[in-house]
Amino acid sequence: MTSGSYSHQSKSAVRDRRMGWAIALHGGAGDIPLSLPAERRAPREAALRHCLELGVAALKANRPPLDVVELVVRELENSPCFNAGKGSVLTTNGTVEMEACIMDGNTKKCGAVSGLSTVVNAISLARLVMERTPHIYLAFDGAEAFAREQGVETAHSSHFITPENVERLKNAKEAKRVQIDYTQPIKGAIPSSIGDSQIGTVGCVAVDGHGILASATSTGGLVNKMVGRIGDTPIIGAGTYANSYCAVSATGKGESIIQATVARDVAALMEYKGLSLKEAAAYVIERTPKGNVGLVAVSANGEVTMPFNTTGMFRACATEDGYSEIGIWPSGINGDLEYPNK
Amino acid sequence: MGCWAIAVHGGAGVDPKLPEERQEEARRVLRRCLGVGAAGLRAGLPAVDVVEMVVRELETDPVFNSGRGSALTQEGTVEMEASIMDGRGRRCGSVSGLTTVKNPVSLARLVMDRSPHSYLAFHGAEDFAREQGVEVVDNSYFITDENVRILKLAKEANSIVYDYRVPVPSADTCSASAGPVGATTDGGLQMNGLPISIYAPETVGCVAVDSGGWCAAATSTGGLMNKMSGRIGDSPLIGSGTYACGACAVSCTGEGEAIIRSTLARDVAALMEYKGLGLQEAVDYALKERLDEGKAGLIAVSRNGEVAHGFNTVGMFRGCATEDGFMDVAIW
Question: Do the annotations mark residue A231 as ligand-binding?
Fold first, then answer.
């Protein structure tokens, strides 16, 4: 396995793609072990496939990319397989504090929320902040109050908290560390009975045939995080960004993504240095410490890239010319699923 | 061996009719804080220590909108936020939703230095403050009579005081096209529904480069007058209100939402890094091309000891000093 960018290209992706829709989504990047048991792998692949199909159908039906990324992320939030919404990892107090962000590349309008504990779909509340307040970002009590004003769906914490995450927190406390993933047992720590990876974040980026772009990201954050900790997801330019060049959603170690302004940098490299989407994304990934970051991105031209410098990243993408891909580890690694263009 | 340089700001968007004694008072505070920073740099302190020290001074002084003198939420309370970034290693720390911490910028520094995270907010940040033993006071300490008065006026006008924009027809949307500052029908300059004479001063910040060539930035604010409780602006967001890297350090002020959309602080640095622009060029380009209809100002320093600033508002409280003895404080 080589270090650096793992952006996958099949032969068909090399062909110049002028316009046409494209979509990419992720369910988190991290140290996902190759030994991930089938019963942990299968539901995640199924969820990725299902969300990809939903997103593709919406793009084919000419839904605006902003709607598409929201609906895909809602679906990812509702899945207990990923670290967002239901299935969010827990704070050090055993609670959930969810955050999300959405950005419209066309207008650069954006919305973000943090510190949610009862809102079923954080991404939708982020969208309401964008559309129904004069602000961009609401957090904690203020965000929860806004949620009630808006009448969005809320639920008791039992909706979000899964037994696996309760165990994850227990393991993290015993290992006395904050994890971005915890599939690998730490020396001396009690081995986890859970060999999977509830890591990172979920996100979706999309572009339509007119080159309109949008990005959305949602997360439960870090296991055993301090109460009140905010990660990269709701920070425009860090975990989420979209403008007229591209849309980006990042995942990994929040603190690294913030200081590297990952999502903004991909777009800035395209605009200021003239790099292509793939070059720009690879450039950013390579300069972030190894094991810390992955991202999905689409460009106004309908290109897609999904590089990561972690062991794996739950991801899926599709483009209008029929290409689609679902993957976990770098392409070419045994067991990685790929569906070359039909 | 590089030359040191420092710049400070006390907010962009100033009433052109601000009484002379208020202007002089602001200049005096800026001059004093600049002096504190310059002395630190001369003594060889690292840039990150200097920006924290200077912003603490600005927070403590009630003249500007941060710490004591912060703008008030809808509920009449204070929720403060701040961030600090050390270009050396691009380490950063941010805080939001502080209600009792006397110096938010110092808590942001502690988040950076003493927590495993980059950003803590609201109850969690307040708990951390107590764990760290920083100075805390009652929320009433931060509230000034002036701001209570302005909040009342803002509520009567049923608008948020952005400080530098004319009223927009549908003020409840986060619109990217708000229109430029201009004269109203009664001939007086207005900012978002209020006569410009009565809005609150806005945000403080400091950028510095030390003689080792390391840059750092810090920004602190109480945010928008009459904001929703829980609203986070640009000041604590790395890449928006604050940014520092090997090339430069930037601190912004102005319409928070516009600064966030344009990731203003990061863009200045990215223009230098990726497009090869010089410091002032990058500042000018970012303000001209990235803000759309938004109003903002910023200060910046480069690793080479240059200082720069820019603003598209009516005025920005600011000051700068460089190792060769140059010092300037200005508003217009």
Answer: yes
